[in-house]
Specification:
single chain, 18% helix, Immunoglobulin-like, seven-stranded mixed sheet, alpha+beta, 35% strand, Chondroitinase Ac, Chain A, domain 3
């Protein structure tokens, strides 16, 4: 590319997509050994048809040299331009030309009604704590009165908008468009709105744990190194309290989009060997690691363990490494607890790779103002409403949203769920296999003579048989297409829980029998009472269980939601 004065420069551009918007990293090199190059760098974002949809430039009359880039002989410089939207390609120029209309997209102030915010010139990201605030009014004032302001996608009246706040993290995105119509600047305000009742519960929980709360100062991100002596003191404190839990909860001053916890491998092993689990608390979310997970993280003599907790817009990140190597598949329980509010049963955590949703986490759920997200290692995730719409579920509970959002059930037809239809035995086993993310490729042969290997349920039945979840009905048969009875359903659920080492909350702990307890088959009596005490299965009225009655699709759906939400995390 040639300058207007004929002196040659080389321009290279890297285009990336971050948070749904395009970012351009432009490198300019002066190829001359002698001449000084000077110019304005203009970057235009094009749509798929080659139309300019947004333009940015280095020129700014308010900064030194008006933003013109001057390069000595063979000098190289780099500039980053972040657009407010996603485009298809870029067009870059470096010359004496400037975009003629004012390109001032700066704000001079941001205020929140009822929530203190200290605005700083040049700062575009703000993180603020609040407690039990239902809504606020945000007011933003532009430096150039001719610039326009959009708040969360809606043009604000004089830069003002009323914002409803949920518990947990609330993102407010302010996009200022300069008078030239193309220059934009993005400001973000994240309000961490704490639930006072949840805070009280956490304080009560922390009374039952050994807590370590160092004070650290952060700007965008921070690292917390926890010494071996700190860990030793925590272990001794936990033993003295007769508790098996340690909570590391740093008190962070400043804007921390990421908190990195650094521990030695021997320290992690010492925690595991003491039979203690660890919870890492940040304002973004909490991360709990079981003793099994700690053992796997620190195995093979790992010396340096790093666990990072972060959030960028609506994407949450957990990064776990051992000696600098990322751990993506860890044996043992790892669970994220993310503050949220007013979410339905159809909301599920979705794994994110390269800013695209790659899969859903079926065992994730919303409960007590939190999304509970089980993980198997390093991961990025976000929350989506994945529930399917059916025309025959009006009047039924949210449990149908729960199972459809997790792709456990298919509809009987594209737009019908069939809630009162009976559930067959093969489908029940398939649902439990899907819930457990069973790898079908490892189960190709069934021991039952009536299970065709071409049927969708065949690998799941093979898996369930190999793990003692099902036994068959005699004569080496399983009868997969036969409607399942309620006592069979309770038995299969109980066997699944035992085979997968799931621990449930015992919410009833009663010994009262059903009125028709004598009609329950001997093999199923213990399972029925276990499922009753765990709150997974109930009677049908008049304290009767109806053990030989068939289970409907709606009944299985509600049992699945109760099962997932009843797992001890």
């Amino acid at each position: 590319m040639k300058l207007n004065d004929g002196k040659p420069v080389t321009i290279s551009t890297e285009q990336t997509e971050v948070g749904g918007v395009t970012k351009a990293i432009v490198t300019v090199k002066n190829n001359s050994l002698v001449y000084v190059a000077s110019g304005n760098l203009i970057v235009k974002l094009l749509d798929k048809n080659g139309k300019v949809i947004e333009s940015l430039q280095s020129y700014d009359k308010l900064i030194e040299n008006n933003g013109f880039i001057s390069l000595m002989g063979e000098e190289t410089t780099q500039r980053t331009f972040e657009f407010s939207q996603k485009g298809s390609s870029l067009a870059v120029s470096y010359s004496n030309a400037i975009l003629d209309r004012p390109n001032n997209a700066n704000l001079t102030d941001i205020t929140l009604d009822g929530i203190p915010l200290q605005f700083e010139a040049g700062k575009t990201s703000y993180f603020i704590d609040a407690v039990d605030i239902k809504e606020t009014i945000i007011t933003s004032i532009q430096e150039d009165p001719n610039a326009t302001i959009r708040i969360n996608g809606v043009e604000g009246t004089f830069g003002t908008s009323k914002i409803k706040l949920n518990y947990g993290s609330n993102l407010i995105r302010i996009v200022v468009t300069a008078a030239d119509g193309v220059t934009t600047k993005i400001y973000t305000v994240v309000i961490n709105n704490k639930n006072p009742s949840q805070r009280s519960n956490e304080e009560n929980q922390n009374k039952e744990a050994a807590v370590f709360s160092p004070r650290i100062t952060a700007k965008n991100g921070t690292a917390l190194t926890i010494s071996d002596s700190d860990i030793e003191s925590l272990i001794n404190k936990a033993k003295g309290m007769d508790t098996n839990r340690i909570v590391i909860s740093p008190i962070v001053s400043g804007d921390a989009k990421q908190v990195l916890f650094e521990l030695s491998g021997p320290a992690v092993l010492a925690i595991m060997e003491a039979g203690i689990e660890v919870r890492l608390d940040t304002l973004m979310f909490k991360l709990k690691l079981s003793t099994n997970a700690l053992e796997d993280i620190a195995r093979v003599g790992g010396n340096e363990i790093a666990i990072s907790i972060g959030q960028e817009n609506d994407i949450y990140r957990v990064e776990i490494s051992r000696d600098g190597v990322a751990l993506n598949n860890i044996n043992g329980g790892i669970t994220a607890f993310v503050p949220q509010s007013d979410l339905g049963s159809g909301v599920v955590a979705a794994l994110v790779k390269n800013l695209q949703i790659s899969d859903i986490i079926r065992m994730s759920f919303y409960k007590d103002e939190e999304m509970v997200v089980p993980l198997v290692g390093s991961a990025s995730f976000k929350f989506i409403n994945n529930a399917k719409s059916f025309i025959d579920t009006k009047g039924y509970g949210s449990y149908i949203d729960f199972v459809s959002a997790r792709c456990l059930f298919n509809g009987t037809k594209p737009d019908t769920f069939g809630p009162i239809s009976s559930m067959n035995r093969g489908m029940v086993v398939t649902i439990l296999g899907r819930l457990g993310e069973v790898d079908q490729s490892g189960f190709t042969e069934s021991k039952f003579t009536d299970v065709n290997s071409n049927n969708y349920y065949s690998p799941y039945i093979a898996w369930a048989a190999q793990n003692g979840i099902i036994q068959g009905l005699g004569g080496n048969r399983f009868l997969p297409d036969k409607p399942i009875t309620r006592e069979q359903l309770a038995t299969i659920f109980a066997n699944y829980i035992e085979a997968t080492n799931i621990k449930l909350y015992d919410i009833k702990s009663d010994t009262e029998d059903f009125e028709d307890y004598k009609d329950i088959s001997d093999y199923a009596k213990n399972a029925v009472m276990e499922m009753k005490n765990a709150g997974i299965i109930y009677g049908k009225g008049n304290n009767s269980f109806d053990p030989k009655g068939t289970a409907t699709r709606a009944e299985v759906a509600i049992m699945l939601e109760r099962l997932v939400k009843g797992i001890v995390r």
